From TrEMBL:
Pfam families: PMD. This is Aminotransferase-like plant mobile domain-containing protein. Residues 480-489 have a biased composition (Basic residues). Residues 474-497 are annotated as: Disordered. Residues 61-407 form the Aminotransferase-like plant mobile domain.
Amino acid sequence: MEVNEDPGPIDSHVLYDQDNHVSSAIWDGQERGVLRCHEHTSMLDQWKLTPIQIKLVEKAGFGYLRLLPPMSLDNALITALVERWRRETNTFHLTVGEMTITLEDVALLLGLAIDGEPVIGPISAPSSVCEKLLGRIPDELNGGMVKLTWLKEFFSECPEDAPPEEIERCTRAYLLYLVGSTIFSTTTGNKVPVMYLPLFENFEKAGKVAWGAGALAFLYRALGNASLKSQSTISGCLTLVQCWSYSRLNVGQPKFNQEPYINSFPYVLKWRGKSCTRTKCNVLSYRKALDSLNASDVHWLPYKDMDYTTIPEDIKSSLILRASRTMLLCFDKAERHLPDRCLRQFGMHQTIPKDIERWERKSRIVDHGIDLIGKMDLAVKQWSERWHTIAKGVDIVDEDRYMQWYQKITRKFIGRVTSSLESEYQRTVTAMREIASIADLVSTEGLDSYNTELLNEVKNIVHKCLTEQIDETPKEKMTKKGNRKRRQKDHLSVEYE
């Protein structure tokens, strides 16, 4: 990349929202630092499920998701990936072309169903839903959300001799906790919407829901929101994002402490033996790696060596939907699944994809008494036609023609080529932002007055340094310093004339 090369897009008919994208701010020198990532897999194993509960969880379609291992998130890697996510196409715009997280990835990495009824339904009063399905009402129900800690406190240990009604209540609470900690995690950090709970009223019906498609709709929306320059947090199933990257890109891949679980299902279990990579790279390092990504750094077919006998038949039979151009739903969220833009992920040649229509995501207020199915009937209809909209490859393709087209419509680079001084400055600012982010998350609860004062002093110092340093680059500071010297010289010459 040349220093003054245009990062693109040259033709903005695809990436029409470039001005609001975080890459515009970064190109102008406005670093936002590492995203705050909200996911809570670390507490899942503290729930003590009875054999009867496990059967109910499996019947509801979450027998594999409950095996999700506690995952140490690489926030810097996720941040760098988000910088290349485009909500206009629901794909990552990489140097080698577009790639995305598809229904195939959700099915094989998480073991969730990608065919079935959409994740949507009527919204009832949260208090009445909790009383009916959990047998109690939480003290706090702000915005129709319940605290994860409340669910864990009252329902995490169900006696084996409990009556059937109590077992079902505890299991519903676990399922709400599970989705609120993983596939439907919110930026609140510790709450989950009660609106999902009615979907667990009947465990058999819950097992007919396309939870994987709903998880992907939620994640697409979260990635899109986080890609805007005004945002600093991200939610959704970030373990899926990270393991998708580990599986497909030679960037930030961890080393294993032991032999990987290659033939385990779901495929996410392969990464439970990884070593920690948190200190390996920062955002700038990952950004540089993605800006210089080559075709040899991409594993287009990461599941081809997988033991397909371990995949459940219902998931295996639905994998053709990986290439379905359809609409994904999760209550008020409708997101487009556009696999025709990433055909190489299915072993096909990539052609220039169809033009995409501009559309505005509508922010619907999810309140009780609303039946979203009627309000989202077009999206529901598109999902119902998913088996009839499957992308097919062609035998002969000029992929050079595709890349020539792609180079014109994409954002080629995220970061500028900078001098060593400028680069060191950016690394320092990024590190300071990370420290500030960590300090802000540390609670003073339980600390004595001395340690509380120390923590607050650390926060104040870091934020003061950021305020003083981030407005000026080293080049600007050197210019100001030079101007001051010239003014002093001029002043002296006037005095001694």
